[in-house]
Structure formats: structure tokens, C-alpha cells
Amino acid sequence: MNKILIINQSVIDSILSYAKMAYPKESILMLQGKTTKKNIEINEVIIPPFATHGQGFSSFSPFMLPISFSIVGVAHSHPSGVLEPSTYDLNHVYGKFMVIVAYPFETEDNIAVFNKDGKSIQYEIAEDS
Ligand SMILES: [Zn+2]
Predict the structure, then answer these.
(1) How far is the CA of 28 from the centre of ligand 1 (A)?
(2) In what order do the strands lie in the sheet with 28-35?
(3) pTM over 0.90
């Protein structure tokens, strides 16, 4: 994939604060974005409807997603602090990217993006326009 992945600052902030809020449970956020010729830009997070029940990523099912949204990936937290996808995660990638945020959820250093093969992907952070 040669496109540049851009994540808006507000999305980074939401991922961090939502993970903190859910801790010690896992949090899940769906990532909404737009794809252009050069970029994939993640500009919005959506709290999945079932997240309020306090369930983690292991109970995540794409069939629960509203189909009209342009979901480019899913972010979930690792309260354990491990900034790597688990085997389970890699077998359940939805969209183009998997974003993992690891404890202590303080800065973007606690956030990593992976593709379907579990390869780490570089991204840029954009100020909101
Ligand atoms: Zn995970």
C-alpha cells in the first residue's frame, strides 16, 4: 500500500481518552475516513452501539456495524500495555487497518497501526481543518 495514512489529532485524542475511560476494560472505536488517490485520512471515530455494554474486542463482530458508514478500520485498547496485535486480533481485522492503543494511553507513542498482515504502518498526524 503506497498511500499515506493520515490520522487527525482529534481522532488520536479520542482514542486515548476513550481507552482511559474504559480501563481496565478494553475499548473499541470504529474509525471513519476518506480515501483519496494519495491518502487515507481518518477523521472521525464512532463508538460502536454495543460498546456501552462494556464488552471488549473479543466480542466484536462486523455484523453489528451500521453498513452506511465508511469504516476504514477499528481501534481497540490493550490494557495489558502490549503494543502488538494478538493472534486473535490478526484473525479478526475489519477494514484496512487495525489501530492498537496500549496502556497507559498517554500520547501517540502508545498508539500503533497495523495492516491485515500485522505489519506496522507509519502514519502522520494532521491538525483538524
Ligand atoms: Zn487486541
Answers:
(1) 10
(2) 120-121, 111-114, 97-102, 71-78, 28-35, 39-46, 4-8, 124-126
(3) no
